[in-house]
Specification:
Elements lengths: L6 H4 L7 H39 L3 E2 L10 E5 L5 H10 L19 H5 L4 H4 L2 E5 L6 H19 L1
Helix pairs in contact: 2-6
């Protein structure tokens, strides 16, 4: 693939970047070591978020009893249009999703949610939230506060 040069015992041109290999190995070791801790934390955020959505907003958690990743939550806000909620949250600098990342510019309803058995009307009420280990309970509380106001205004 790389022509020329006789470095690395005539196997390739250029010199192996030992520093980057060492650095990447170090980062990967730390990442793997913290995976279980991050999973526990994300599960804690997930449960807190889901309880708030159900108790304070009367939202419906989708696939609640399914095996799923702890950092992604799909929920429905009955009698809403997810596009409207998406825009109103975005104006508050809160990022959510209403479709897959690869179809974020599309107005087409999620094929994945259709395949999972949701009707078009249900998909139009569905919002997806993703967490990272950098997120906090305080951020969830801010999100819930803003969403609660938006949803209350939307119901009027």
């Amino acid at each position: 693939l790389i022509d020329g040069g006789g470095q690395e015992m005539d196997k390739r041109a250029g010199t192996i970047n030992v520093y980057e290999i060492y650095y990447l190995t170090n980062v990967l070791e730390k990442t793997v070591a913290s995976m279980e801790k991050n999973k526990r934390y994300l599960t804690k955020l997930n449960k807190y978020f889901e309880n708030k959505i159900k108790s304070e907003i009367n939202g419906k958690i989708l696939f609640e009893n399914s095996l799923r990743s702890p950092h992604i939550i799909n929920f429905r806000l009955i009698n809403t249009n997810h596009q409207d909620i998406f825009v109103l949250l975005d104006k508050k600098n809160i990022s959510v999703s209403i479709g897959s990342a690869c179809a974020s510019k599309s107005q087409k309803l999620s094929d994945v949610l259709k395949a999972l058995g949701l009707k078009d009307e249900e998909i139009k009420e569905t919002i997806r939230v993703s967490f990272a280990s950098a997120n906090s309970i305080k951020e969830i509380d801010k999100f819930i506060k803003e969403l609660k106001m938006i949803y209350a205004d939307y119901q009027k």
